[in-house]
């Protein structure tokens, strides 16, 4: 290297060093600010809500060829974004058992899927106001009569219950039928596999929504039956958010209330309710004269 080139290189390095230092400093300053800011402040700063997602039936689907989303909760979140003038960014697929980790770690602000609020789950996340309610029923093969008159007979070591890791069927089985044995499937298993395992004799019973049974029977008639029409459980369906973030929770609740009050949620439920009684509506908090 000649003297001129050496001086030029030295000058370039001298300029680049403080620029790099400023850049690193800015990044560290921004990271520190992000660590201390609330979820609501982050959403207002970035003008977007990031969502984890779980696919299920017509609640939320992802086209394998195009990557496009559809379903009741996709439309609901798009309306949420329209009302609040925020971008909705669907970021990562999660499982029923690990969906709350991303909220706690600030990887996303909510899960773009209605999640049933239950006691184990509220330890890991806060839940918005209800979108609607859902029931869960016990299901067995059509030719099985063992549990017809008494569901307590499910609570027996000889009985196999089909479940999915972290999902509600497993919680019901552990709480109500702890003596029975579980056949557990991975978190991303479709719910239809629960019903299929019962039909194939791999399990004796499982617990799902009534509409899941109705949908399954349209393709597999005369294979299953609901043991009792009265639900084993009724759950509020809502969006989970990071715990102890009251500003963001209030922000979400105000938006959901508007979607209820302007009739959007009811229209959406009517559009997607293939089988009557799938969605238990939320009573209006007022009475008109």
Task: Write structural notes for this entry.
With 289 residues, the protein is an alpha/beta fold. The protein has 2 domains: 39-131 and 239-272, 3-Layer(aba) Sandwich (D-Maltodextrin-Binding Protein, domain 2), CATH 3.40.190; 133-234, Periplasmic binding protein-like II (D-Maltodextrin-Binding Protein, domain 2). The chain is 40% helix and 20% strand. The chain has helices at residues 3-36, 39-46, 72-84, 99-104, 119-122, 168-176, 192-199, 210-219, 246-261, 264-272; strands at 48-53, 61-62, 69-70, 87-93, 110-111, 115-116, 126-127, 132-141, 160-164, 181-185, 205-208, 224-226, 233-238, 240-241. Strands 6, 8, 9, 10, 11, 12 and 13 form a 7-stranded mixed beta sheet that branches. The chain has a 3-stranded parallel beta sheet with strand order 4-1-5. The longest helix is centred in the N-terminal third of the chain and has 34 residues, at 3-36. The radius of gyration is 25 Å and the shape is globular. The model has no long low-confidence stretch (mean pLDDT 89).
The number of distinct β-strands equals 14
- How far is it from the N-terminal to the C-terminal residue, by CA? 91 Å
Compute the CA-based radius of gyration. Answer: 25 Å
**Shape type:** globular
SS-based class = alpha/beta
Low-confidence stretches: none
Highest-level CATH class of the largest domain: Alpha Beta
Q: What is the helix fraction of residues, given as a range?
A: 40-55%
Overall CATH architecture of the largest domain: 3-Layer(aba) Sandwich
What is the total domain count? 2
Described by strand count, sense and barrel closure, the largest sheet is: 7 strands, mixed
Give the CATH topology of the largest domain. Answer: D-Maltodextrin-Binding Protein, domain 2
Count of runs of 4 or more consecutive helical residues: 10
Q: CATH superfamily membership of the largest domain, which one? A: Periplasmic binding protein-like II
The overall average pLDDT, rounded, is: 89
Instruction: Report the portion of residues in β strands.
Output: 15-25%
| Helix/strand order | HHEEEHEHEEHEEEHEHEHEEEHH
